[in-house]
């Protein structure tokens, strides 16, 4: 029958429209499938190639790393585990140089030879570095090749831990990664410099750390230069920690403002070893020296040979009494007791020994009950704490005197470091104290006065009292 739908049409005009739509859709350009983004690998092509390169065909690593221990103190106290990291670089073409290089040009690393290329204060990426100034590598090569200097790098790296405490909390491998990154960065720096040299990195607060001289002694031993044969007048140490004061911007000359240095440790290190000190700006850019200051200045404490009977600083004026010390850690309180009060028959009460305040009061009461005079050898910075000792004196019907050690914090920190790092000056084998011990005392300090109930207050200023040999140790910068 004419006009009847054929079996292939599906019997509907809508099917014809669908067919046309499909044709139109087929005529449209087909978009390519989305490109899959490649995952970025942290492994470089060079590292992959190195992995598949036979060991015999790999280039020799020109920097050899070793670790050292024994930086505990100037008396040879051993320190374990190792805290000094040493990298020694030898160029591929080894020189035939028989000269005994007695002139030493030593440099700090960060902010002296290199800075971060990212602008960060500290870079974690071993590739995040650039020369402090473009002139640096050329100047160092000239020192070695033309001027006969032994060129070395001496750096404090307290952020590194060579052997983490197994009992410490946190990731165990974090420290290893930092050390590996540091080695990689230094190897690249030394390779670009390409002269025979070494880097010494002190990772702990022991005798290796500048301004202490442990790293200097190591480099002299490594290069077979007796310390007494170093040409000190011609040698130099260059570092950015020079104690320079802040400088305001000078609008007339166009000079920019500069911040003060974070410390004076580099200048003090040069003083300790007896060489000329220069900042990077002075050495590489020939800029004039800037003003600097030291919180603690050895020039204010010259050696004075005492005379017999001159040091009578304390006299016993009561038959029985309490002497209360007030003074910061490192002020010399214990030394004062042993030298001036123990010979007068005083018994010592000390919380470092007895461990608790309660035990101190019990020991004091026992001594007083036996008819003895006592010295309370503690810091006692505030009136509230001193009040308890005044009450004890009233209870036992004895007078109480106060000896106030008026010693500034930088000097106390110096004394503490000298004591901790030198066995001959540390009869009680005390370890160094954290900064909190000093900050806590000075934040709580209130000057003692007779109004608190003391018979009198005896102020004591610091003066080094010891032999010339002991002074030679004390009169170095240690902190």
Automatic annotation (TrEMBL):
* Cross-referenced NCBIfam families: DNA-3'-Pase, HAD-SF-IIIA
Pfam assignment, any one: PNK3P
**Region entry Disordered, spans:** 1-82
List the PANTHER family.
BIFUNCTIONAL POLYNUCLEOTIDE PHOSPHATASE/KINASE (PTHR12083), BIFUNCTIONAL POLYNUCLEOTIDE PHOSPHATASE_KINASE (PTHR12083:SF9)
Q: Which organism is it from?
A: Xylaria multiplex
The record's annotation in InterPro entries points to: HAD-like_sf (IPR036412), HAD-SF_hydro_IIIA (IPR006549), HAD_sf (IPR023214), P-loop_NTPase (IPR027417), PNK3P (IPR013954), Polynucleotide_phosphatase (IPR006551)
Q: Name one GO molecular function term.
A: polynucleotide 3'-phosphatase activity
Q: Which Gene3D superfamilies match?
A: HAD superfamily/HAD-like, P-loop containing nucleotide triphosphate hydrolases
The name of this protein is Polynucleotide kinase 3'-phosphatase
Instruction: Locate the compositionally biased regions of type Low complexity.
Output: 1-17
Provide one Gene Ontology biological process annotation: DNA repair
